[in-house]
Each structure stands twice: as C-alpha cells, then as structure tokens.
Amino acid sequence: MRLTRLLATAAAIAIIAGPFFTGQAAAETVKVGFITTTSGPFASLGLTQDNAVKLFVAKNGDSSGGHKIEIIRRDETGPNPDVAKRLAQELITRDGAKIITGLVFTPNALAVAPLATESKTPVVIMNAATAMITTRSPYLTRVSLTLPQTTEIFGRWAATKGGMKQALTSVSDYGPGHDAEAAFKQGFTDGGGTVVASVRMPVANPDFVPFLQRILDQKPAGVYAFLPGGTQPTAYVKAFNELGLARAGIKLMPSAEATNESQIDNLGDLAVGLITATHYSAGYQSAKNREFVAAYRAAYNTDPDFFAVGAWDGMQMIYDTVKALDGKIDGDKAMAFIKTWKSESPRGPISIDPVTRDIVQNIYICKVERVNGRLTNVVFETYPAVKDPWKERNK
Question: Is there a contact between 180 and 155 (Cβ–Cβ < 8 Å)?
C-alpha cells in the first residue's frame, strides 16, 4: 500500500514537473568559435577583443533568449590564413560551433570564407577591414568597418577642409593597406587634391627609417599613413618626428590606428593635434558610450578602442541572433535576420546593409586633445550613416 502511494506521488510529481523538464531539454547551447590573435606581435589586438567579449558576457550573462552561449576561444597567431582555416574547420566539424566570430586580419577572414559557404556557418567579423571580404561568402557579415568607409572620407576632408592639396600615401603592403591607399587617393582627388606618390612597407617587422627618409627627400606637403594596429603605428609616428619630417613642415595624417586608445599614451605629446577619421572614439559623447567607457575603465583601467567596440557589437549581434532564432542556428535563417539587424552601439547607431552584409555607421573626424589630463580623440565632425563606398562604386 505504501509503495502504491509512493508510486502515485512520483507519477503526480512527474506530471507536474514534466513541462518544466521538457522546457529545459528544449533549451539549446549555442557554441560560438572565437578566432582571434592572442600571441605574437599583434597579440594586444586580440586581447583587447577578448576583454570586450568578457565584459559583454559579464554585463549580459552567458545566455540569450534562454539559450546558453558557449564561447570557444582559438588563437590565430597573427596574419596567418593557414592557421585560421584549420581552426575554423576544427571548430565547425569537431567542436560543433554554429557561429564563427573574431578574425583580426583580412587574410584570415578570406581563408575562412569558403568553409562558411560549404557549411552554411554564419561568420561575424569583428575587425578584418578589406572592403571585398564580405563578397567572398554569403555567410559573412561585418560589425567593424571597411577601410574605404573611414579613409575616403578622410581624404576628401583633408583636401576640402584640412587645407591639404598635395599628399603622399604610406601604407602597409597587404589588403587593408591597399584599400586605404586607394580610398585616400579617391577621396583626396575628388576633393581637388593630388597624390604625388605612394610608398608601401612590409607588414611584418618593418624598419620605417628608409621609407620615411624617401618621403623626407620628396618633401610632400602631407603624408597619409596606414599601418595595422598594435605597436607599429606608434613606432611610425615616433620615427616620423625623430627623422625631422614634422620639422620639415610635412603634415602627418595617420589612420585611426595611430591614435587608438590602447596605444595613444605611448605617443604622449606627439599625439596632441593629430587628426584622424574613425568609426569610434572613447571621447564620443552619448549616454551609451559613457556607460561603455566607464565599465571598460573599471574592468581594465584603460579606455576601450575600436577593436573593443567591434567585439562588443559582434557579441550583441550574436546574442540577438540566438534569441531571434530561439537557439536553433540555421545559416540561411541567421543571415536573413542579420540583414535586418540594427543596434544602438557605443559608437552610435549601426545597422547592416542587407545587400552587402557590411556595417552602416557614422564616421567621425577627430583631433587628439588632453581632456581632464587624458589624451582623447575629440570628435569635431560627423558623417552619418556611411555605407562602404567601395561596394557602392562596384555594384
């Protein structure tokens, strides 16, 4: 009799609890493969991305729409497409990753593209900035920037408002550098300026002195310079000043990597007065950005930069996608949702162009000033809702 009552009680509990346990079983764990650079000379870039990812999870939890998000971290070791391709393949086929993200460098993103197409795996690019990347697979999207977005505007601004009518371009010799070179020339010449020469430098372990000496010998009115993030832009600016280019009256117009918040203190007073075009500044005045900067400073005792905001917004896209698809990540459905995605980012309003799957965002002209004792990229001009101009010209 007692056993009968126990069995009846157990059955009743099972009936009551059944829906709860069924709901729990239905919850999906979505694995996200995060491929970034955490070793080698460019390690600071990936570590900054990872800091932003960790902060996002700390602020938003490790679940979205009731579905746990598991981040699987892998080190691409720098611009190394063979490593990136192998890691992506392992993440998709062995580890069960349903989304791939990260990807600091263009060659690595391009190496992952065919795998994304074959497996229909959405790839959320947090940095790699060569314009044509998203044309290589319908499963690629990007939340960072394209080099033409910032650089073409910068070239046009330099010629029309910056008082510069003659310039030389100086860039790293790989995809983003080539994009930056072409985009600055496009904007600068559209604005009535003339690019008198172009200098390309090795992307790995460059010695800037001979290249800068060539520039000094040519004595252009100004130099536009693009280098990868990390320590190279700082070394370039210091060498530019040490070799006497500034004293010779040559104006330096660097890409935003030179005054990136994670490196700007290394320049000290050399940074003051530098003007750049960028899609993010820690000095941008909005409630969302003030909150982001305060949280990042509290966690890491430094300001966030555009590598950080790209990772932050990439995580927001991933969380929103998981919620929208109720944890069931189908590549085609994910990309259909991503094409409609928009967000109020710390950098301002952002959205995805449904045709190109590239980000649409504000571009800011900034000048480095000391604000409350801190070197800050102060926004003084805004170009709203900019699409990638390279794709606009090459439809």
Answer: no
